[in-house]
TrEMBL record:
Belongs to the inorganic phosphate transporter (PiT) (TC 2.A.20) family. The lineage of its organism: Bacteria, Bacillati, Actinomycetota, Actinomycetes, Kitasatosporales. This is Phosphate transporter. The keyword Transport applies. It comes from the Bacteria. It is found in: Membrane.
């Protein structure tokens, strides 16, 4: 019993580490457009998002129930080491995509890790296939499309309503609206993503006989998961914020407001239903939709393509890593220790590589001049010939030749 208690403690700590990585990995969902348009300074934005993520964690437990008893069969003989292996797979994938600056889905990394570890440990009967399809795969396809269409329509409506008015004047109002909509996205993110960690910890407690099956997460689980994701959010995933705020499309205040409002609506509705969707995919789809909704707006499809590839790889890649970790962890205490050591080594190596080219808050903030003008000016300066050495001396010469 002491061994199980210690192992459950390790699983809980690992789950909170995943929750922490989820926070800084997904900060961009709420704050990338708000930062890129200058509505809020980077540090202020992530601080506000962190507080609202914490508040959102207390609003619902429906998604936590989906994780703890919907996708994985609690009665199939799942042991704490299996959950531990699944979390290690999710953390490794989160850190790899963070290093690449790709807004992949932390949610799908977690699902893939749990499913992969369960398949290796107990087989297919340990996974509720219907729940995976209905509550994970279908929302994964539908949610970004719905959010993108909604953001496109909202962006076009926004510009139509503001037609004939000075864009600089309306931008001030939209920046204020962005702050409100970003707050709503942060709140929605807390209600959806923080609950996933609550569900994993509850599942570990059920497997260890600490709580009864199908129980709601205890209050201390809700508090600890909310604090972990809030802390990760405050640190800010600047690499991914830079990609969503500047690398996917050029966002203006009206577009940012439309994208964030649409994303928040989809996330809150899904949390109420119990769909454990990817907030990353929803927000990315909204940003692309807002880019298409503005006349003359451009979506950088090469960046979007890289994101979609990462989305498609997340479930199987995290599952593959977790499956290997589960096989090793089931060999006994030395196997669990080996998984922990390897996980720490890989995470440390990723962090060291990231220090070679760090991304800081100022990299995500808007430039002092509008970006398009700066790019054009630099391009013209690069190709323009140097000015003549003495224009005041050579200019009269053609006039003299003409009179002679």
């Amino acid at each position: 019993m002491e061994h199980i208690t210690l192992l459950i403690g390790i699983v809980i700590v690992t789950a909170l580490v995943f929750d922490f990585t989820n926070g800084f990995h997904d900060t961009a969902n709420a704050m990338a457009t708000t930062i890129s348009t200058g509505a809020l300074r980077p540090k202020v934005a992530v601080a506000m998002s962190a507080v609202l993520n914490l508040v959102g964690a207390f609003l619902s437990v429906e998604v936590a129930k989906t994780i703890s008893g919907g996708i994985i069969d609690e009665s199939a003989g799942i042991r704490p080491e299996v959950i531990f292996a699944g979390l290690v797979g999710a953390i490794v994938w989160n850190l790899l995509t963070w290093l690449a600056g790709l807004p992949s889905s932390s949610s799908h990394a977690l699902f893939g890790g749990l499913i992969g570890a369960t398949l290796v440990s107990v087989g297919t009967h340990g996974v509720h296939g219907e729940a995976v399809v209905m509550k994970v795969l279908i929302p994964a396809v539908a949610a970004p499309v719905v959010a993108g269409i909604a953001a496109t329509a909202a962006t076009r409506l926004t510009y139509r309503l503001a037609r004939g008015r000075d864009e600089a004047d309306t931008a001030r109002g939209y920046r204020a609206g962005q702050i409100a909509s970003a707050a709503l996205v942060s709140l929605a993110h807390g209600t959806n993503d923080a609950q996933k960690t609550m569900g994993v910890i509850t599942l570990a407690l059920v497997t260890g006989g600490v709580v009864a099956p199908h129980s709601d997460p205890p209050l201390w689980v809700v508090v600890s998961a909310g604090l972990a994701i809030a802390l990760g959010t405050y640190l800010g995933g600047w690499r991914i914020i830079q990609t969503l705020g500047k690398g996917l499309t050029d966002i203006r205040p009206a577009q940012g407001f439309a994208a964030q409002t649409g994303a928040a609506t989809v996330i809150l509705a899904s949390s109420h239903i119990g769909f454990a969707l990817s907030t990353t995919q929803v927000c990315s789809g909204s940003i692309m939709g807002a880019g298409l909704g503005r006349k003359g707006g451009v979506v950088r499809w090469s960046t979007a393509g890289r994101m979609v590839v990462a989305w498609c790889l997340t479930l199987p890649a995290a599952g593959l890593v977790a499956g290997g970790a589960a096989f090793l962890a089931e060999q006994g205490d030395w196997g669990v220790t080996a998984v922990a050591v390897l996980g720490l080594a890989v995470s440390g190596a990723i962090w060291l590589v990231s220090r070679r080219k760090p991304v800081v808050p100022d990299d995500a903030a808007p430039a002092s001049e509008p970006e398009p003008a700066g790019v054009v000016t630099q391009a013209l300066q690069a190709v323009a010939p140097p000015p003549p050495a003495g224009p005041s001396v050579t200019a009269p010469e053609p006039a003299v030749a003409a009179t002679s």
